[in-house]
Amino acid sequence: MWSIIQAAGWPIWPLIVASVIALALIFERMWSLRQSVVAPLGMVDRVLVEFRQTGSTPELLARTAAQGPLGRILAAGLANVKAPRPVMKEAIEEVGRVVTHDLDRFLTSLGTIAVAAPLLGLLGTVIGMIEIFGSQTTAGSNPIQLAHGISIALYNTAMGIIVAVPALIFYRHFRAKIDELVVEMEQQAIKLVDFAHGDRR
Predict the structure, then answer these.
(1) 144, exposed or middle or buried, with CB in 10 Å at 0-12, 13-18, 19+?
(2) What are 95-153's pLDDT values in tens digits?
(3) pTM, to two decimals
(4) How far apart are CA 9 and CA 144, in angstroms?
(5) Is residue 187 within 8 Å of 42, Cβ to Cβ?
(6) Count of beta carbons in the 10 Å neighbourhood of residue 180
């Protein structure tokens, strides 16, 4: 591995740093965007059961809000449960926008790496080409410098693609996952609003 890094030259280092950051972001988002963390199944039913028993108490609001993004949305609804339906929905939507913004965290960085990695690879390719042209002298070509230039160009091109493709795949995957979770949370919140205003039992 070290021999490959040496053959690729200094342009490979930004790509290595980008790959480490992308990997960390992917694992962080995979852990943070789990269904059981963001919007546990049946959560609104459990909250409604407790709400029927105790009403909208501060303890219930605090416990609900501590249960992740969906909990924060439901807690906002419960805090305004006695308000008119439009007011309750507006409170839920305000918290929902904040929650959605939090779910999007780090995705811009991951998308940037997916776009920038091929360009960093191209930079390495250009530097490799400069090395190749520099190997040509009036006395002939320097085979060692020529081979080194080819190595820089090819390794950096390959590394740029290797970093960009998974980053782009996971960026698209996480975008779709967030959209799915947002729809799920909207449905759960609507269920709470309908229950609070007598549209659902």
Answers:
(1) exposed
(2) 999 999 999 999 999 999 999 999 999 998 898 888 888 777 667 677 777 787 888 88
(3) 0.84
(4) 14
(5) no
(6) 14
Residue 180 to residues 1, 55, 184, 198, Cα–Cα distance (Å): 40, 30, 6, 27
In SS3 terms, the chain reads as CHHHHHHHCCCHHHHHHHHHHHHHHHHHHHHHCCHHHHCCCCHHHHHHHHHHHHCCCHHHHHHHHCCCHHHHHHHHHHHCCCCCHHHHHHHHHHHHHHHHHHHCCCHHHHHHHHHHHHHHHHHHHHHHHHHHHHCEECCEECHHHHHHHHHHHHHHHHHHHHHHHHHHHHHHHHHHHHHHHHHHHHHHHHHHHHHHCCCCC
Other beta carbons less than 10 A from residue 129's beta carbon: 14
How far apart are the C-alpha atoms of 147 and 161, rounded to whole Å?
Answer: 21
Contact 32, 171 (CB under 8 A): no
What burial letters (b/e) apply to 46-63, b meaning 16+ CB within 10 Å? ebbebbeeeebeeebbee
Tokens encoding 175: 């975008």
155 contacts 8 by C-beta, under 8 angstroms: yes
AA identity, residue 162: I
The Cα–Cα gap between 201 and 194 comes to 8
Q: Which residue in the block uniquely carries the two structure tokens 């030259």? A: 9
